[in-house]
Design brief:
The structure holds 2 protein chains of 2 kinds. Chain A is mostly helical. In chain A, about 55% of the residues lie in helices and about 5% in strands. The chains are: A mainly alpha, B mainly alpha. The interface between A and B is large, with 131 and 115 residues.
Chain lengths: ~600, ~350
């Protein structure tokens, strides 16, 4: 049970150490590629850029990427590799998907095997997964260079090329081969029809023929490696990594989980390596590891070690008094009767929405890790997690810096770090310093802008949707859990995570869908906007902050300097993250998962 | 600006060729060359040489001769995976599980150990008292309006039955319309709750259910009639029976047997689940083949043992069985089920 998360953490750390050395070697430009690859580099390199030019190139590239994605996805009906003649997606779904994939979110308001052809899987999904992951990576590298005081922070296009071609492609090829061997399909065919072993077990058609089972296949083993390595999370199939062809065995489950961990782990160490402050980066690494272990243990404890409370006995009746002016005495009493348990052997924990082949704690572990590194792939149904266990994935998204997404997780941590340093400075009455540079009002303002986008983009829209029929018409579970579904969707959008409580009715799919979800359009547009705003503001503002800080004169190291490579500093950072996170999100946590956990179960119906 | 723009286009042009052309092609070559079985979806062939399914994808089995996979929220449709998305707190989850349990649950201890609970549920249902109050069906519809409505919508014959009832009870319908002035023309689904209330009083101890009867010339006809036994009562009312008998000692059913998987296509069942089904499967084959049930059971048990697998060789989880694989071997060994 505990072996799986321990093995994962240990392996990912062991891989991250040499990989961070390799990544630093590549990003510092020490690798001299062979002539063919060098030719490409030469075509792309238009000279070293200042931070403003770098940020500009990043934004312009993403604009072009948006147009590319829109055109590719809208062209699906006329493109090859589409034998089932899948039609046009609804316009709002195209907008949402394009925003989702270019921001590394991969929130899917469609189901892969139903709505996308293999052409779209390759040219839209795979392409965006490689490139969007690289954008965050490059942003972090630019920040590191700015912190080093370099006026020219490198060339964006050259950086992109290096990240994609020298890191992601080789890693994806290795993973892909391992995945195929385990049973992941890799073909340009799109489906096979098989007659079932028991004839007509799938039912019969109108003219009395036994229905076949249609098995959708495709270039799954090309999508999945980069889906995990790039912490994208957008699955080939609707049910993502829970689907047996997208995650055929316990081995692939281990490897996919590992794949999504290694680059976020690596980037923290890369930060230390490139700044020549390795001890400092290990302090940050330990804080993140502690938070990750916390979320994993929480999820396993409440989901794997506890049964599904919907099926168990609740032997004592409970009464609640609720103030009500119209009732006699000003109070109404609600009684929740005692409930007898159903005869179900739940020694494996909550199995609703779990698969058997991954192992006992695999669903809970994956749920925690996938949000911590903001991957968003899922190997179990998060909507059916035990109520309080679902707090673990939500916390991961709210903090958004427990290793975090490709580059942006580390960037988010820097924001918490600056706030922490500032608070510490205030407490002892000294001007706060980071990396030997004085943190001033300008840096704090930029850090706070980036930091506050996230809670505003979660709490604002959740409130709006929960108060209107936009949200209430879309939920499929009653009570507090319905609120959790809305909250999760916006948390996932704003954290650029992409996992979801799938019960929420947002899957519009095709433009000619005869029964679209009633408020699908509103969800498409709102989450699309949230994803875009929560992606680019927290990338651009920190680059500006890093430049502002990095170009200051260094102050000499003195007795009163706050050392950033000690356990004390780790505690400061940990405390800042936990306290700021709790202040922002405890109230909604109480309305959602906590209320569901403490309230009557079963509920409604 | 323009420079960044042209470099962006240049980058996209180069990288599309490599990432969308070369990269999948290399994996395709390796996959098709080295692992053709896996790369094409792990398709198994049946006794007649035709493909019968994927080793990795669950397919439905209804016959007692076969092991049955976990229930599927996707109806085993491998072209549209789905999970139930039911929260633990949602009553519908408990209801779904209880309905599945009703017909298969047995007593765990006491004088009736090993016997099915189902006949007792029917006997209790005919008494028509729940929690000391009369009329079980009326109480059920009152407490769970959504389930009552779902019953009406689940089948066209159900709504026709309610429509016919509405015609025969104009006063009840008129009273309902008076209480619900917003709905002057109620549909069958609108009337679900009041229908069950009236039905329960007119037919104590009965529930409307499908009855298939034979007409003169060998044709069968299916109608809805009030019945006092059968699988509908065993499944729908097990949960209420349980609340009336909270201390009854029941044998636990393996959880994976009554919970849906994340994809709806989970090809495995737990070892406990396989053993739970073993007696049924063995007895059925023994009856078909006119052989000693104990011997057939032993054979099938060995087959299960030979085909048991575990996540990462047991490192991360417990033993489990691939349903299609085992059923295919049963089919090859014992022939076509009756």
């Amino acid at each position: 049970m505990w072996l799986l998360p321990i093995a994962l953490m240990a392996t990912a750390t062991v891989i991250a150490i040499p990989l961070s050395r390799y990544a630093a070697w590549i990003m510092e430009g020490q690798y001299r590629p062979p002539r063919l690859l060098a030719w490409f580099e030469k075509r792309l390199d238009n000279g070293a850029q200042t931070w403003k030019q770098y940020a500009g190139a990043l934004l312009i590239f993403n604009t072009v990427l948006f147009i590319y994605g829109f055109v590719v996805l809208a062209a699906q009906p006329w493109m090859p590799l589409n034998p089932q003649h899948k039609g046009m997606l609804a316009p709002t779904v195209i907008f949402n998907s394009v925003a989702s994939f270019m921001t590394n979110t991969n929130l899917q308001h469609y189901a892969g095997e139903v709505h996308l052809s293999n052409y779209s899987q390759i040219f839209f999904v795979i392409y965006n997964q490689f490139v969007s992951a690289a954008v965050g990576f490059c942003a972090l590298v630019a920040i590191i260079r700015a912190f080093r005081g370099e006026k020219l922070v490198g060339n964006f296009f050259l950086d992109m090329w290096r990240v994609v071609m020298y890191m992601f492609v080789p890693a994806a090829l290795i993973s892909g081969v391992l995945f195929i061997q385990q049973g992941m399909p890799m073909t340009y065919h799109s489906s096979y029809q098989v007659s079932t072993l028991e004839p007509a077990a799938m039912g019969v058609t109108d003219n009395g023929q036994a229905k076949p089972q249609t098995i959708v296949v495709g270039p799954v083993a090309a999508v999945v490696p980069i889906k995990m390595l790039g912490t994208n999370g957008g699955g080939f199939y609707g049910m993502n990594s829970a689907h047996p062809l997208e995650n055929p065995s316990a081995w692939t489950n281990f490897l996919t989980t590992l794949d999504m961990m290694i680059f976020p782990f690596t980037l923290v160490l890369l930060y230390g390596r490139m700044l020549k402050r390795r001890r400092h980066s290990w302090v940050i690494f330990s804080v993140m590891a502690l938070l990750m272990i916390g979320t994993i243990v929480w999820a396993i404890y409440f989901d794997t070690l506890k049964p599904n409370p919907g099926l168990t006995a609740h032997p004592t009746a409970r009464s609640f008094e609720i103030p009500n002016p119209s009732a006699p005495g000003g109070k109404r009493t609600f009684t929740v009767p005692a409930v007898a348990g159903l005869p179900v052997d739940q020694h494996l924990g909550n199995l609703e929405g779990k698969e058997m082949r991954f192992g006992i704690s695999a669903g809970a572990t994956f749920a925690a890790v996938t949000v911590d590194v903001t991957c968003g792939a899922v190997n179990c149904e998060h909507d059916s997690l035990n109520p309080i266990a679902a707090l673990s994935p939500m916390t991961g998204m709210w903090l958004n810096c427990v290793y975090g997404g490709k580059g942006v997780g580390m960037i988010n941590l820097l924001l918490f770090l600056i706030v922490g340093v500032f608070l510490a400075g205030q407490m002892v009455g000294r001007t706060p310093e980071y990396l030997g540079k004085k943190v001033g009002a300008r840096e704090m303002k930029l850090a706070m802008i980036a930091l506050l986008v996230h809670p505003i983009m979660i709490l604002g829209p959740t409130g709006l949707f929960a108060a209107t029929t936009w949200g209430t018409k879309a939920i499929n579970n009653p009570g507090a859990h319905g609120f959790s579904e809305m909250l999760y969707q916006f948390s996932s959008s704003s954290a650029n995570n992409g996992s979801a409580f799938d019960g929420l009715a947002v899957t519009t799919g095709f433009a000619d869908n005869p029964n679209p979800p009633p408020t699908g359009k509103q969800w498409d547009i709102a989450t699309g906007l949230v994803m875009l705003l929560s992606r680019y503001l927290p990338i651009i503002a920190p680059i500006a902050m890093a430049a502002s800080l990095g170009y200051k004169k260094p102050t000499p190291f003195g007795l009163g300097t706050l050392r950033d490579d000690t356990p004390t500093f780790g505690c400061l950072l940990f405390g800042t993250i936990v306290i700021v996170g709790a202040l922002l999100f405890l109230p909604v946590a109480a309305l959602g998962p906590l209320a569901e956990h403490l309230g009557p179960i079963p509920f409604g119906g | 600006m323009i420079r960044h723009f042209s470099k962006s286009l240049c980058f996209i042009f180069f990288s599309v060729i490599i990432l969308c052309g070369l990269y999948p092609a290399v994996l395709w070559l390796i996959g098709q060359g080295l692992f053709p079985f896996q790369a094409n979806g792990s398709i198994l062939t049946g006794p007649d040489g035709k493909p019968v399914g994927s080793l990795l994808i669950a397919q439905p089995f209804t016959k007692d001769e076969y092991f049955q996979p976990r229930p599927s929220a996707a109806s085993y449709d491998a072209s549209a995976s789905a999970s139930s998305t039911l929260a633990a707190s949602n009553y519908l989850l408990r209801d779904r599980v209880a309905r599945q349990l009703g017909p298969i649950v047995t007593y765990g201890g006491g004088p009736k150990a090993g016997q099915l609970v189902a006949p007792d549920i029917e006997a209790w249902f005919r008494q028509d008292h729940f929690a000391g109050q009369p009329h079980i069906v009326a109480q059920w519809a009152d407490a769970h309006n959504a389930l009552a409505t779902a019953w009406v919508n689940s089948d066209p014959t159900h709504s026709q039955y309610v429509d016919a009832w509405a015609k025969a009870h104009p006063t009840v319908v008129a009273k309902w319309v008076k209480d619900n002035p917003d709905t002057p023309q109620p549909t069958a689904a609108d009337l679900a709750v009041v229908f069950f209330e009236t039905f329960s009083k007119e037919n104590p101890g009965k529930f409307p259910s499908r009855v298939t009867s034979e007409t003169g010339n060998r044709k069968t006809v299916t109608t809805i009639q009030p019945v006092s036994e059968g699988s509908d009562i065993q499944s729908i009312f097990f949960e209420m029976w349980r609340q009336d008998h909270p201390t009854a000692d029941l044998r636990d059913v393996p959880a994976d047997m009554v919970t849906t998987s994340g994809s709806g296509l989970d090809p495995h069942i737990s070892w406990d689940n396989a053993l739970f089904q073993l007696d049924r499967v063995a007895n059925k084959w023994a009856g078909n083949l006119k052989r000693d049930p104990a011997k057939v059971r032993q054979e099938i048990y060995s087959l299960l043992e030979a085909n048991a697998e575990a996540p990462m060789g047991g490192l991360f989880g417990e033993k489990m069985i691939n349903v299609l694989n085992v059923n295919l071997q049963l089919r090859k060994r014992y022939g076509n089920p009756s």
